[in-house]
Design a protein that fits this description.
With 118 residues, the chain is an all-beta fold. The protein has strands spanning 3-7, 10-13, 18-25, 34-39, 46-51, 59-60, 68-73, 78-83, 92-100, 103-104, 112-117.
Length: 118
């Protein structure tokens, strides 16, 4: 069974940076468009960013535009989310997934917790 695995989360002060990674056990991600999502306590999961299989057609939510950057390294079967100028409102569990029309296609992984202190 394919499992998405997110890592790189942690605790950081406002203004700091983190780099999240996403890979999959049992299947290559290189042929899929990928996305990052997040879910804050008491809120629904929301879209953060997407990237197509070749590294193009990037889309980013308005709330993170100019601060977060999505990228991928298909040779390493990994998708990244570089998060800079973090704000307390970015605190959430972050998940990656295969996307189609910005909608998740696979089962969710365990996610990685990002906590930003003010």
């Amino acid at each position: 069974q394919v499992q998405l695995v997110e890592s790189g989360g942690g605790y950081v002060q406002a203004g700091g940076s983190l780099r999240l990674s996403c890979t999959a056990s049992g299947r290559t991600l290189s042929i899929y468009a990928m996305g990052w999502f997040r879910q804050a306590p008491g809120k629904e999961r929301e879209f953060v960013a997407k990237i197509d299989w070749s590294g193009g057609n990037i889309g980013v939510a308005d709330s993170v535009k100019g601060r977060f950057t999505i990228s991928r390294d298909n040779a390493k079967n990994t998708v990244f989310l570089q998060m800079d100028s973090l704000k307390p409102e970015d605190t959430a569990v972050y998940y990656c997934n295969v996307v189609r029309n910005m909608r998740p296609q696979w089962s969710w992984g365990q996610g990685t917790q990002v906590t930003v202190s003010s």
